[in-house]
Amino acid sequence: MLVSKKIAVLLISVFVLYFILLGCQHSKLLTEQEKQDRIMTMYRQYSQEFPLVKGITVEELQLLQQQDRDLILIDVRSPSERMVSYIQGAISTEEFESNLEQYQQKTIVAYCTIGYRSGKYAQKMQQRGVKVFNLEGSLLAWSHVQGKLIDSHGFTNKVHVFNRRWQLTAKDYQAFW
């Protein structure tokens, strides 16, 4: 009886590992368009939880950056995620909230990995009277428009993607979790 239980556990472990590896390979087999479609589908599903938050596309953000508008980017991810990479000029939620008055007349855009956490953050800030846009598809979508990222050493192509399921970065970017 004990031997058959060990065999059953071993077989289950092998199947779980197989499906994890299959999932990783599957995400690598997706075309760039399929990755983008999956990102935006996931974002639209998540954004239903914060319907009053206005979104901004990655293309619109790039235009704002080129126009050198008074733009404040808030990276709502954890410090360990931000260490992998962030959009140049982005600040943390702590820095933003400690200087709220300074940012009143600026265009404020929050982002995370795909837009869920930043959408919830934007919703919270709206309840406090602060107008914040949410970056649709966030860093995953940003990678598909060749958006620039930096880390402590300068420009990078690394993106913290939360977990294997979100391995949807553009082909020129490296996913980490």
Structure overview:
There is one protein chain. It is built from seven helices and nine strands, in the order H-H-E-H-E-H-E-H-E-H-E-H-E-E-E-E. The chain starts with a helix and ends with a strand. The longest helix is centred in the first third of the chain and has 28 residues, at 2-29. It is globular, with a radius of gyration of 19 Å. It has a five-stranded parallel β-sheet with strand order 1-5-4-2-3. A two-stranded antiparallel sheet has the order 6-7. It has a two-stranded parallel ribbon with strand order 8-9. The chain has helices spanning 2-29, 32-47, 58-66, 79-84, 93-98, 116-127, 138-143, and strands at 55-56, 71-75, 91-92, 107-111, 133-135, 149-151, 154-156, 158-160, 174-176. With 177 residues, the chain is α/β, with parallel strands linked by helices.
Shape verdict: globular
Give the CA-CA distance, first to last residue.
39 Å
User: Residue-averaged pLDDT, rounded?
Assistant: 89
Number of strands: 9
Largest sheet: 5 strands, parallel
- What's the quaternary structure here? single chain
Q: Write down the Rg.
A: 19 Å
DSSP summary: helix tally: 7
Instruction: Please state how the strands of the largest beta sheet are arranged side by side.
Output: 1-5-4-2-3
Roughly what fraction of the amino acids lie in strands? 15-25%
N-to-C order of helices and strands: HHEHEHEHEHEHEEEE
Low-confidence stretches: 13-26
Structural class, by secondary structure, is alpha/beta
**Helix content range of the residues, please?**
40-55%
